[in-house]
Amino acid sequence: MRILIDADGCPVVKDSIEIAEKFNIESIIFCDTAHNFNQKNVEVVIVSKGVDAVDFAILNNIQKGDIVITQDYGLASLVLSKKSYAINQSGMVYTDENIDELLYSRYISKKMRNSGVRLKGPKKRDKSQNIIFKENLEKLILKII
């Protein structure tokens, strides 16, 4: 098991690495050339900018049983299909039971935006989300182990 981090716009990279180290799990950061990560003892995979470039790099490197940290429902769906695990930066674990509904809600939201409807964005992130993320990532790791 490894932890693969979709680091483009991810606010919990440092927390993810700390938990990986706590459980002695390898972690790998995936990002595009617009980001610069310099984490000790952590592999950083840098890909060129492009739509879904980081997602494809993760999918090309994933192994059965890995954990992927991402906020992208599409990537999470593909991760689940590869018999791996996915969790978002707020601590929600993606499962076969919730992914279809999440993808459908994304589809409906996109249709609404395309038709001119203005939707509210996500609430501003607060520290409690980091705590929930860390707790749920640890629970996921313990479940897998």
Automatic annotation (TrEMBL):
InterPro entries for this protein? UPF0178
Note the HAMAP family from the entry.
UPF0178 (MF_00489)
**Which protein family is it in?**
Belongs to the UPF0178 family.
PANTHER family hit by this protein? UPF0178 PROTEIN YAII
Which domain of life does this protein belong to?
Bacteria
- In its UniProt entry, the species of origin is given as Intestinibacter bartlettii
Any Pfam family hit:
DUF188
Name of protein: UPF0178 protein KQI20_09755
